[in-house]
Amino acid sequence: MIGAMLSEAWHAMGANRLRAFLTMLGMMIGVAAVIMMLAIGRGAQFVVDESIASMGSNLFIVLSGSATSGGLRMGMGAVPTLTIGDTDAIAELPSIAAVAPAVPGTAQLVYGSNNWSTQVVGTSPSALVIRAWDVSAGYAFTDADVRAATRVVLLGQTVVRNLFGNEDPLGKTIRIKQSPFLVVGVLALKGQSLDGRDQDDAVMIPVTTAQRKLFGSQFPGSVRFIMAQATSAEAMPSAEREMTQLLRQRHHLPERTENDFDIRNLTALANAAAQTTRVMSVMLGAIASVSLLVGGIGIMNIMLVSVTERTREIGIRVAIGARERDILLQFLLEAIIISMIGCLVGVIVGVGAAVLANLIAKIAVVITVSSLILAFAVAASVGVFFGFYPANKAARLKPIDALRYQ
Amino acid sequence: MAQDAIIRITHLDKQYETEAGLVPVLRDITLAIQPGEFVAIMGASGSGKTTFMNIVGCLDLPTRGTYVLDGADVATLNKDRLARLRNKTIGFVFQGFNLLPRATLVDNLALPLIYAGVAKPERIKQALELLNKVGLGGYGRYLPNEISGGQQQRVAIARALINRPRLVLADEPTGNLDSKTSHEIMELFTQLNRDEGITIVLVTHEPDIAAYAKRLVRFVDGRITHDGAVEARFIEEMPA
Asked: Do A321 and B92 touch (CB under 8 A)?
């Protein structure tokens, strides 16, 4: 029965190829647009999520703060108020999982005949934990290295490429600002940060080495900023409170004076960025859905015309024994076939366009099976939804009126 | 004997609602047709004979009165049961043939079998058999517009017969045919009635077509004015 109806529906479409094609075209454009937009939206989301994951989770950055000197207020970081001591004290707080100091600077690196200017960060091994950053070869320097201020270095991938090419850097000695450093490890590839910086263009050395031997400072023992990781996302507000209290106490700040440090919740910032892209991808999808809706209305339109044109045929079918549901099913099947074929072609075109956008315009796209299934399911239900009214109209025609229709 | 009537209509009225109000089309029709009868229905345009046929064919329902078809009061049947009656018990033949223009002759013939739920190989087999029987063997793959009107009406009759109905309703089946072809078609009806005992009710304008029937019912203004045997002399007196 269904088989016979499918073949009849197929033939009915064959009888008016141009019309069936144009109707499918509407559906096809709708589906292709949805798939393409979903791919682009998901792609943007993927890029942001990757950057957030590479940043580390539940992350605070504590910057040394502004100072007021004779009524002149300086900007953040103007005075190095944070110390290794602050770092160790923060590590003792209950809501804090890990802490690492950071003394960054720019320096020229030399290996053989190659040289490269990059960011050198003095820090401690826990920085790798906080940033969720692995060592891909060799090993990370240890707390013993920090205590002894040894000249060891961990290289980022970009630095390895520029200094060593294809050579194995492990165990080699490079010069940073003329001083020799032993390469003990290579950091895993990290990619871009949220603001588009190349995170792999950096090297890490023990914080003490940076303070004492590389970036001489007029404030010995000071650090530029502190990275701190809360024990959980829920613990972030209490961690911020505890750190503020602790640092004010340690810096002997009287009440009603400003903090001489600044605590930034990086995770909150990143989540805001993620939220933005999520909203964007939902909006892209919504806009594309409108074209799907228009395609569906096209189907309804054509099916209504088709029902009117074939009124007499419906009358004949009823006279020879078709039930209402037979007529309903026949026209519904036609609408579904049109929308399914349109959808199938739309999927192919949409995926093709997304791949092209990726290749030509270098737009990040992510095509998931779920988005294809979604598009397909939506198209099928559009076919049913917009096909139902005309089909129902056909099924409810009075047979004597239908037979009399010329 | 009277209990076995295939069609039993009692005090049947049919009114149509128009802007001018209720228009009576059939008034107080009482009629019984026994299995195996061959009845011709005659009447001027607007006399109600087509409405009568629509009601007999379960395409329309009476306003008042009862219609018992093959033992079942149609007023008590739901739409699906009515569809089943149209499919299995009744075969329709129309003036304009009413074949589906885009379907081949075999597909046209097999259409009632689809609604009867017959499987495809069996559908094709029966359709080809019946096509042979009406003298159109070998035309299975033709489209309706590729054959003559007489041939189309043969296909339409074959379609009406494919589910072996007990009753064939023909609404001016020769109205679009020339006189020679008309008589060929009527021979076919006569044969079906005589050899297979199929009850035939046929509407016509033409006395010589009505002469093929055994019983004549004449409608004037929605009432039956004559119901009796067909006599050649009587037919000739009637206005065409």
From this structure: no
